[in-house]
Specification:
Number of strands: 4
Shape: globular
Strand content: 5-15%
Low-confidence stretches: none
Strand order of the largest sheet: 1-4
Distance between the termini: 27 Å
Length: 112
């Protein structure tokens, strides 16, 4: 098992999860984070820290596409180990449906 970041993170990117991760397995895109499934130790401390409820265990049904996306972009985006400033409009996008199709960006973030 591993944890994955879903589209609920897109345009929210609160980054509270990054602060608690003991193995620094988060990677930053322009408008979301992903978890490297090969580095995640399945401790689960990140899941309750996410205000957008975007982090789920990959054992839940229907998360195969998110496991693939997390694996792909964690290999391309820079590692992030410290919380950066949350986007000013993050709360406006919390709970919005269909964010992947509307807002996903494959561009990397700044990382550390």
């Amino acid at each position: 098992m591993t944890y994955v970041v879903t589209d609920a993170c897109i345009k929210c990117k609160y980054m509270d999860c990054v602060e608690v991760c003991p193995v620094d397995c988060f990677y930053e895109g322009e408008n979301m984070l992903v978890i490297n499934p090969n580095e995640c130790i399945d401790c689960g401390v990140c899941e309750p820290e996410c205000p957008a409820e975007a982090i789920l265990p990959d054992t839940e049904n229907g998360l195969e596409q998110w496991l693939e996306l997390n694996a792909q972009y964690s290999a391309e985006w820079p590692n992030i180990t410290t919380k950066h400033e949350t986007p000013a409009d993050a709360d406006d996008f919390k709970g919005v449906e269909g964010k992947f199709e509307k807002f996903f960006s494959p561009d990397p973030g700044q990382g550390d």
